[in-house]
Amino acid sequence: MAALRYGVIGIGSMGRHHVRNVRETPGIELVALADPSGDRFDVAGGLSVGEGVDDLIRAGIDAAVVAVPTVYHEETACALAEAGVHCLIEKPLAGDVASGMRIRDTFEHAGLVGAVGYVERCNPALREMRRRIAEGQLGEVYQIVTRRQSPFPARISDVGVVKDLATHDVDLTAWVAGSPYERLSAEVTHRSGRANEDMVSVTGRLANGVLVSNLVNWLTPFKERTTIVTGEKGALVADTLMGDLTYYRNGSIPVEWTTIANFRGVSEGEVTRYEIDKREPLRVEHENFRDAVLGVGAEHVSMEEGLQALKVVEAILESAGTGRTVTLEAPCS
Fold this sequence. Notes:
about 325 residues; nine-stranded mixed β-sheet; 15 strands
C-alpha cells in the first residue's frame, strides 16, 4: 500500500514536532509544508515551505496536520475538508463552540476523519492509569485532581491559560473517568499584564458523581504535570512529564495507635511505581490518526470529543466571569 501523503501547516513551536513525527511514522510520507512565517526552526529538510493552505492542497495530500494559531483553525480546516483532506487539528478544536461546531459538521458532511490533538491521551502514564481504573484496581473512583503549572510559554499569543492548558485537563479528566463534566465553578486571575487569564482553579463534578479539581497556571517557577485519581482502594498518581505511574494502596493492617485509629480514615499501604513502556506521546497520536484515516483504528480524539472539551472550557470562563456555578448539558449520544 502506498504511503499516505501528508502536509503540515504551521511549523512553529508545536508544528516542528509534528514534522519530525510525520517523517518518522511508518506509512506516512511528508510532501508539503506551509507557514507564512517561513521555516523558523529549520525543519523543512529540502521541502519548499508554502505560505498557506492552498499550497498544501495543490500538493495533492491525503491528510494534514493543522498547527496554526487557534484563531485560524476554522478557516484552515474547512478549506482542507472541502478539498477532501483528513485533518489532525492541534487542540483546542477552535476558538469557541460555534466555530468548533462548524468544523465538526464540515468534516462529518464530507465523510472525512477529523481528529483533535489532545496528546495527553497518548501519555504512557495516563494510558496505563485509565486501563487499571477500567479493570477495577481502584474500585469506585471518588475524585480526580490535576495540576498543570509552569512559567509562561513565549509561544502563546492568542489565548489564555484556560484554552491553551486547562483544555488538556478537561479532556483527560473526562476520558480517564469515562464520564463528562456535569457542573463546575471556576476562578481566574490576571497577574502578568497580559489580556488573557494566566491562572485558573476549577472545582466540579462529573456526571458519574466523581469530584474534580483542576489547577492550571502560567505563574509557577517550576513545571508540574500531575494527575491524581483517588478511589475506594487507593490512589493512582501520574507524572506525565516523566511518564511515571505510581499506585498508593490503602493499608490493610489494623491500626493500633489510638491517635491515628481515631481518625477513621484510610491508612497508608504499599506504594508501587510501575514499569511501563514510555513511547513518545506525539508518535502514538500520529499512529492513531494514521490508523483512523486507513480505517483500521479508532483511538484518535474525535472532533465531537474536542467539541465537548471546548464546551467545558467555555463553561469555565463563564463561571469565572459571572461568579456562578455552571451546569452543562449532557453530550448527545
